[in-house]
Amino acid sequence: MTKHIKILVIGVGVAGPAVAYWLKRFGFSPVLIEKSAAVRKGGQALDIRGIATHIAKEMGIYDQICNMRTQIKCGRYVDVKGNVLHEEQGETFGFRQDDEVEILRGDLVEILMKAIADIPCEFKQSVIKIEQNEDSVTVTYKDGRVENYDLVIAADGIHSATRGMVFSKNEYQLINLGSYVSAFTIPNYLGLDHMELLCESNHKLVTLQSDSQADKAMAGFMFRSKHVLEDIRDEQEQKHFLHASFQNFGWETQNILNRMPESDDFYFDAITQIKMKSWTKGRIALIGDAAYCPSPLSGQGNNLAFVGAYILAGELKKADGDYIQAFTRYNELLHPFVEANQQFGVWVSESFLLKDDEVSKEIAEARSNKILAMIKSVSNSINLPQYE
Which residues are listed as membrane-spanning? Predict the structure, then answer.
């Protein structure tokens, strides 16, 4: 029965290809669409942690992830004058333990897409209308084409257009945690060699790292602010806000910002959580950041995507395609795991971005040890069902 169930998956990030993989493996017929012209290269580094590591191994992609993992050998905290405060080895600096690995977002998506090479995927495509009834979901695409599907799974990120089309505003909350994050690539003008530098002061954080591409460096900014942008998606407003927020910050900040116009991969967003009582409505389900973003600072969004994809597809298999039963179980099984990770996301948002008088070697070490312990707990705070 399952092979005749046609499922549209919206979004080629991490959650979309992951759920498509498990749907195909469990006998369904998924198809993917993505509004971008191609898979976005590079991007921020993501962690494969805890139970998600087990899922990656089950998918047969863990060794590929290890082969393409980041290779930061040293992390170094500096003050606004450039003095070294604290130094840690790469894995400890990234809060990774045992067989956990870090990989660039673009590299992970590339691995996932190769794992589902036989699944139809259409780029430069998006949905402008969704209508559902007892028997199917009718989808209208931006090019005017109309298609019917048995189910739709939306994995189109924290600013999910699907969520806005299907769910009313009182069915979800975007919780602003009071901070912003930005990242972009610039030339490796400091000559960093598999190293990350981190400068934290006055509720602001600037990072600079260089890994496998010796001529390039990834700059990162995080900062607290009560200011609300008029248009969170306006890149010029974002860049102006970033400049204004880090004026006279010190260290290499101005040199980094001066090189920002050279970058072609500028990213900026508010540190936000998505809260929903139910991630499903009728024949439509949300997954990944579209459903339960825990906050970019938590580093757990990738793991929620892996676990959510496995459970959603697995419950559909277990229910032999009975989406009502499967969606109910998806919500029941995943909610405690999501809540634990979102609580951790709030804690990280509050514990990072310290005041001037709080930044020290002792504080940095104590915070790292606490984060390591908490990550290990929340990353493994679910017992995965067996569907095969």
Answer: none
Residue boundaries of the structural domains of the chain: 2-70+98-174+273-352
Q: Is 267 annotated as a binding residue?
A: yes
Give the span between the Cα atoms of 158 and 272, in whole angstroms. Answer: 8
Provide the whole-model pTM. Answer: 0.90
Does the annotation list 299 as a binding residue? yes
> How far apart are alpha carbons 301 and 290 in whole angstroms?
10
Whether residue 46 is annotated as binding a ligand: the answer is yes
* Concatenated DSSP letters of 349-380: HHHSS--GGG-SHHHHHHHHHHHHHHHHHHHT
**Is 154 known as a binding-site position?**
no
**373 annotated ligand binder:** no
271-298 tens-digit pLDDT? 999 999 999 999 999 999 999 999 877 7
Q: Which residues contact 91 (CB under 8 A, 6 or more apart)?
A: 97
Q: Is 29 annotated as a binding residue?
A: no
pLDDT digits (tens, 9 = 90+) for 17-46: 999 999 999 999 999 999 998 888 767 778
| 14 annotated among ligand-binding-site residues | yes
Q: Give the pLDDT score at 233.
A: 82
